[in-house]
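General statements about sequence and structure are easier to judge against a single worked case. When preparing material for the folding task, we compiled for one chain both its residues and its backbone structure tokens. The amino acid sequence and the backbone structure tokens for this protein are reproduced below:
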Amino acid sequence: MKMFEFRSMLKEKAKSLDIDSVDIDYLIADVLNVSRTDLVLIDEIDEKNKRKILKLAKKRFRHIPIDKILKHTYFYGYEYTVNENVLTPRQDSEILVDTALDLIKENSYNTLLDMCTGSGCLAVSIKKNVDILVDAVDISKRALKVAKKNAKQNVVDIRFIHSNMFSNVDKSYDLIISNPPYIATDEIASLDKEVRSYDPRLALDGGADGLKFYRKIYENLSSHLNDNGMVILEIGEGQSEDIKKIFSNCSLVSEIKDYNGIIRCLAFKLKERL
């Protein structure tokens, strides 16, 4: 079958289901192990690869996210394994990595803790760019398994800690970062199907008001943040003022907007020990 006809057929089907047709090119390119730009150079598609692609396309047509189908994604220029046990890295989170790298270099920080690490994308991306001791924490053993795999395939040395927040963390750090669950419990049902059905609820549910984990982080800062240390938090849209109130005993260092002009990260420094 002609590749052009095959691609067109699948793209039309995708459009009819309100699915981005470019996802079809990602699926085809992954199966054929070529770049998307090279697809136009392929004249024919054989039956074996056609069947493989159709099998994946049918999953996408059921609105299974493409990253969960392919079992990998890209974040900050690096490849990461993802599955049903971790939140798929979002491009907006790259802003947290940029902010962390700037603060590490400006302040000569030597140690970092990534709280609620999930896939490990934040910790790994930072470790790839600076020589700093990095620990990463998650309550989910299944998530940590994915994170360890991502550290190994990206050739970085990170200590992973299985812990309910800070319960098994025994030291303090120059920098603490976190992209914790921040969706209010009652709002999860209204999320896009591809998020609520295929990202782990554990990585989404931030409690009744979405702020549960920010409070836990604040309560533990005195014990786990070094003098002159900072904490960087990724936050949800509209949560900025509430989180500033939670961190009232801290100095706001900076607030960073994402590519859509929404405040996405807040950086704080302790004013005094709690």
About this structure: The chain has a mean pLDDT of 95.
